[in-house]
Amino acid sequence: SNSISLDELLKALNLLIHGSETDKLRFLFQVYDVDGSGSIDPDELRTVLKSCLKESAISLPEEKLDDLTLALFESADKDNSGSITFEELKAELETFPEVMENLTISAANWLKPPDLDQKKRPTPRYLTRTYWHNNSRKLLFLCLYSVLNLLLFIMNMMQYAYGGPWLMLAKGCGICLNLNCTFIMVLMLRRCLTWLRATWIVRILPLDQNILLHQMVGYAIVIFTVAHTMAHVMNFITLTQADDSYQLWEYLLTTRPGIGWVKGTASITGVVLQVLICLMVVCSSTFVRRSGHFEVFYWSHLLYIWVWVLLIVHCANFWKWFVAPGVIFFVEKLVGIAVSRMGGLYIVEVNLLPSKVTHLVIKRPPFFQFKPGDYVYINIPVIAKYEWHPFTISSAPEQQDTMWLHVRSMGQWTNRLFEYFRQSDSQAMSNKRLTASLRNRRHETRNQASKNMFQKNSFACLNFNCYVDGPYGTPTRQIFASEHAVLIGAGIGITPFASILQSIMYRYRMRKQNCPNCNYSWCETIKDNEMKLRKVDFIWINRDQKSFEWFVSLLTKLEMDQADEEPEGRFLEMHMYMTSALSKNDMKAIGLQMALDLLAKKEKRDSITGLRTRTQPGRPDWGKVFKKVSEEKKGKVHVFYCGSPALAKVIKAQSEKFGFNFYKENF
């Protein structure tokens, strides 16, 4: 009737919550029986499946939709009568136990009030034993860092006890600023940290947390700076009350009182430092960096040079703290400039992928050596002459001639990069529009029946200069030291794992064995000093269907490499999730998921991605995922994640429950 009354709504909700399994099946049958005839014909089934595909943001050719409809219809129509009865649908659903289980979970359950026991607040994660065990290195380091600051603060306060409480507070904060303004630089010595990751020190110090520690030290600097400034202001007020030789503004904004070791400039430089430090902290906030204004963060952070210069002028002892790490820092910068200008790097190919992802293929110089998962800073003069931006290398080290970068358009620089090549591609196409038109016409004539699910623009770009600084190490270097690795990529967060998976499979192929008497082949257990991996679970979560194109060819190749049986089961297992797709808990989507399962078994490939691995709808149930991983007992489990920070918190909390080590890409 194109409308629903309150009584009808209440009756349906009551059925979904309290009804029996048969009642729910009958309700589902009515959803698919569009005309209410008591049976489902192929056209009705096609109509519902098409609606589900549209709601799930899945784009399939009409021929593929027909295949899905026929696969489900032929499986359910047991008597070949040309229609599906209720009994036939019930019998078909019973062959899918997981579907029957999901059928008992309906959207109506959201209307029920939460259970009383759910209102009890669980123990905060930071107070659990598991959290302290998994973060022992970081917590121990933070304790030592805090104790060192406290000791310096107390010792310097006692030295200036003669000057009153405000001077004592100012001097105590001052010595802590000397430490922190130097230590914050040490945490960004990327080349030194990359080298240290290959040593035993990585097992003692939280080197993988350097970005987090850098941010924490930055906030500590702000707190000490504000306290230091306010204490000096209060001390100046005390001095003006005791002696009216100088006014308060003269103490703060002039050199007349002669405070400071460089011509009395301590107060003036202190005011400027306060402004610069606060500006840097505000411009480095998450809402600035993640809102498409990375350039604001980038250029404001370069003020650190002036901060160090002013600190040397402001404080007589700061240079003693600064000289050793400062020399190392500037040597690193000089080495980076020298390396980036060597080798004559240039972009040889550009691929424009869906969701505004730019795939850069860069000529790799012979001396450029990196590890899987490393990242580089890249500068492309035609996009921005002085800007350097970090991106993960998505190709394997074993790929000798070229290096790949996948750049998602999320800010001003990345958007300019994508638009530059898109306009170049459009111009090239318009210049040869007749040739392109003829080629497309012939292509359409040959392939009218089957269209490619994924499309991309690809073109060569010879002698397109760029500069690369790096490579720099990341937490993912720990992968080859683990026994069971779980790699989780959300969206473009797959890029470090693309490099790692290629490198893993290269080593896997090196250990492949072939029987000399027949065509049987297998892979021996991979376990040596360089690579202890026994099992890899790769999980890729995407919002839409087109995003899978970024690496679908790579994943297809990895699946082909694993076509043979292995003594201990499959070495690499892939799990694909599409969050925009209707989940199996959605009553209307049950038929679509059954049809996709049936067609995948028939064609031995997924209809959404073309891979052998079936794409699952919705989001992973991390509790079930990690429980399955734990039950496999392949050794110590390490979880590696790259993607949105919000999802990282969820995955980290779940992995800690199972005692897994968690690593996150931080840069």
TrEMBL record:
One annotated Gene Ontology cellular component of this protein: NADPH oxidase complex
InterPro entries hit by this protein: EF-hand-dom_pair, EF_Hand_1_Ca_BS, EF_hand_dom, FAD-bd_8, FAD-bd_FR_type, Fe3_Rdtase_TM_dom, Fe_red_NAD-bd_6, FNR_nucleotide-bd
Keywords per UniProt: Calcium, FAD, Flavoprotein, Membrane, Metal-binding, NADP, Oxidoreductase, Transmembrane, Transmembrane helix
Transmembrane segments: 139-162, 168-189, 217-239, 259-284, 296-313, 485-508
FAD-binding FR-type domain ranges (all copies): 340-478
Pfam family, one: EF-hand_7
Gene Ontology BP terms: defense response; superoxide anion generation
Intracellular or extracellular location(s): Membrane
Domain EF-hand as annotated: residue spans: 20-55, 64-99
UniProt-listed PROSITE patterns: EF_HAND_1 (PS00018), EF_HAND_2 (PS50222), FAD_FR (PS51384)
Membrane topology reported for the UniProt record: Multi-pass membrane protein
GO terms assigned for molecular function: calcium ion binding; superoxide-generating NAD(P)H oxidase activity
Gene3D superfamilies: EF-hand, Nucleotide-binding domain of ferredoxin-NADP reductase (FNR) module, Translation factors
PANTHER family per record: NADPH OXIDASE, NADPH OXIDASE 5
Protein known as: NADPH oxidase, EF-hand calcium binding domain 5
